[in-house]
Amino acid sequence: MKIAIMGDTHFDFWFSSSGIVSEQKFDSKFKALLESAPADVLVIAGDIGHYNAQNITCLKHLRRYYERILVTFGNHDYYLVTKSIVSKYQYKSGRLGGSRERVAEMKTMIELEDGIDYVDGNIIEIDGISFGGATGWYDGSLLDKNNHD
User: Fold this and answer.
1) Among 106, 103, 1, which Cα is nearest to 58's?
2) Distances (CA, A) of 3 to 29, 43, 126, 129
3) Helices 23-36 and 52-63, axial angle in degrees (round to 10)
């Protein structure tokens, strides 16, 4: 099994934040890179981008090149970069609210896709190789204080 690792994709820096990224547009930016280093599994080590809809679209495009994709979340995956996004993820009864709500939504989007998984305090095993990861924040505030010393 060949494994490729990519980090800090920041897809919104490559494409409009509208979330609409066609296969043709995606391939015009990434196809040469992806085809030059083929692998079975792609690990994305955080900072996918600032917009969940766009992130999942780009992950689906990447999935055409890899059997499996594993992602973990970086600080930019928690950022709420516009007033409308802040409003969308505001705290409400029964919700995490804020940045944590945004990542929870991204996890749900990923769970609906075949061949795309996230690691966030869990282990994914592929062909006998274990992959793990966890979200962190510069001050440790995203760690569950009840489960970590």
Assistant:
1) 106
2) 21, 7, 11, 11
3) 50
Q: Are strands 122-126 and 129-133 parallel, antiparallel or unpaired?
A: antiparallel
Cβ contact 51:89 at 8 Å: no
- The pTM (predicted TM-score) of the whole model is 0.87
Q: Which residues contact 110 (CB under 8 A, 6 or more apart)?
A: 56, 59, 71, 116, 117, 118
pLDDT one digit per residue (tens) for the chain, 149 residues? 999 999 999 999 898 766 678 999 999 998 888 888 889 999 999 999 999 999 999 999 999 999 999 999 998 999 999 999 999 988 776 767 788 899 999 999 999 999 999 999 899 999 999 999 887 666 666 665 444 44
User: What are residue 41's phi and psi, to 5 degrees?
Assistant: -125, 135
